[in-house]
Design goal:
Layout lengths: L3 E8 L9 E8 L4 E5 L6 H9 L6 E6 L2 E2 L10 E4 L11 H11 L4 H14 L15 H13 L5 E5 L7 H18 L2 E6 L2 H7 L2 E6 L2 E6 L1 H6 L4 H6 L6 E8 L2 E4 L2 E4 L2 H4 L6 E6 L4 E4 L4 E10 L4 E9 L2 E9 L10 E6 L5 E4 L12 H9 L2 H9 L52
Parallel strand pairs: 3-8, 3-9, 6-7, 7-8
Antiparallel strand pairs: 1-2, 1-4, 4-5, 9-10, 11-12, 11-14, 12-13, 14-20, 15-19, 16-17, 16-19, 17-18
The structure holds adenosine-5'-triphosphate.
């Protein structure tokens, strides 16, 4: 096993001028499950392929453990990759597919069979070892692709959207299995996804990328509670955070018919006359007549939770608003309610730079800075890694939700590294608690 370090790693594709991956500084700790997440085209796959040796590194370097692998061919990097397209050999059985890389590497037949069986047990694939891929379900094929990586006992697993060919229900089940399996095996893993719910539920830490620039690297909890900039604030969380621009007058902003005081320390950090305020749906409460008046568009009932989607006029601008409300609600489309933050405004950002202005040094990052290797410490302590060319504050609350909020988890340490005896796939991932 090994750590992975990107040192100012940059990729500029031939014929382009803007780096697809720009000076990425990131350390993945030994045994850690790190998820790279971001919107389409942000450079996730390129970053992973640079680590795999499939993409040239134009500046900077990449280390696996203490070894500089920047110029090392892929086959000598001690990594195993699981792709979105499982690319199983159709004419080979499950066992042959899983053992193929070992055969090429000259591993003896008996040892191959033993390692394939061990992985098959872990993945609940034992009954299918003699089947061909066409006689398997999508989920089983996905597990064969995982098995092919596991049998190699690599130092690092690289996974590029390995769940995207599965239907929604199977995705949820499989992500739990992969996270659980990774913790049992304790193999350092870099996992790429564009799905922030997947990122939040699977990763020990999550690295958020935008336009090739690393925005923030932190635990799911810290990303949710203290996004380093407006982009991360809008990207992480489902339904998305409400973001709005509020004018500052005499140290106070107007939130509908109430005034909210902005901390002097926050005001000292911005030269602007307005601020981007971020309120998660759960930060808002319905009041009798205080706060902003919201016209209900839709009430989304999710069983345990319900969300109100509506619109309001704030500082003369019409904005979309999302609030979590009690699951039993008589509200209907067209109704009017008042909403206000139940505490103060939880997230405050500079309207121009998009950088966080309040609580900008998360407790977790400080702790990480004290305990992690230099590069990771620099990343975590800084919160936002690169100066972010964040968009001007979004006037509208960001996108509509795709799924329920990410299950609240805190990075559990990888399970005992050697504990691979029991089948992992049947069990849900160790529940993470705050
Ligand atoms: P997605 O989620 O859509 O797969 P991604 O975050 O993985 O996106 P990359 O595939 O890493 O993004 O691409 C990053 C940027 O590099 C994009 O702007 C893309 O157009 C560009 N890019 C990728 N491959 C090449 C290439 N071979 N030549 C030129 N540009 C490329």
């Amino acid at each position: 096993m090994a750590s992975v370090t990107f040192e100012k790693a940059t990729r500029i594709y031939p014929g382009t001028t803007r780096p697809a991956v720009d000076q990425v500084e990131l350390t993945v700790n030994d045994g850690e499950f790190l998820v790279l997440v971001g919107p389409s085209g942000c450079g996730k796959t390129t970053t992973l392929r640079m680590l795999a040796g499939l993409e040239e590194v134009n500046e900077g370097r990449i280390l696996i453990g203490d070894r500089d692998v920047t110029q090392v061919p892929p086959k000598d990097r001690d990594i195993a990759m699981v792709f979105q397209n499982y690319a199983l050999y159709p004419h080979m059985t499950v066992a042959e597919n899983m053992g193929f890389a070992l055969k090429i590497a000259g591993v003896k037949k008996a040892e191959r069979a033993e390692r394939v069986l061990e992985a098959a047990k872990l993945l609940d694939l034992e009954p299918y070892l003699d089947r061909k891929p066409k006689a398997l379900s999508g989920g089983q094929r996905q597990r064969v692709a995982m098995g092919r990586a596991i049998v190699r006992k690599p130092a690092v697993f690289l996974m590029d959207e390995p769940l995207s060919n599965l239907d929604a229900k199977l995705r949820v089940a499989t992500r739990t299995q992969i996270a659980s399996l990774q913790r049992r095996l304790g193999v350092t893993t870099v996992y790429v996804t564009h799905d922030q719910v997947e990122a939040m539920t699977m990763g020990d830490r999550v690295a958020v990328l935008k336009d090739g620039l690393l925005q923030q690297v932190d635990t799911p909890r810290a990303l949710y509670e203290r996004p380093a900039n407006v982009f991360v604030a809008g990207f992480i969380g489902s339904p998305a955070m409400n973001l709005m621009t509020l004018k500052i007058t005499g140290g106070v902003v107007k939130f509908g018919n109430i005034n909210l005081k902005i901390d002097a320390a926050v005001l000292a950090k911005t030269k602007e006359k307005a601020i981007t305020a971020g309120l998660r749906p759960e930060d808002l409460v319905i009041t009798k007549n205080e706060g902003i008046e919201v016209e209900v568009d839709v009430i989304e009932e999710l069983g345990a939770d319900a969300f109100l989607y509506g619109s309001a006029v704030v500082d003369g601008e019409k904005i979309d608003v999302i609030a979590r409300i009690g699951s039993v609600s008589s509200l209907r489309s067209g109704d009017k309610v008042f909403l206000k933050p139940q505490g103060g405004i939880t997230h405050l950002f500079d309207v121009t730079t998009g950088l966080r202005l309040n609580n900008d040094a998360p407790a977790t990052a400080k702790k990480a800075a004290a305990t992690k290797p230099a590069t990771a410490a620099a990343v975590s302590a800084a919160g936002a890694v690169s100066a972010v060319a964040a968009k001007p504050a979004a006037k509208k609350a960001v996108a509509k939700p795709a799924a329920k909020p990410a299950a609240k988890k805190v990075a559990a340490k990888p399970a005992a590294k050697a504990a691979v005896a029991k089948p992992a796939v049947a069990k849900p991932a160790a529940k993470k608690t705050k």
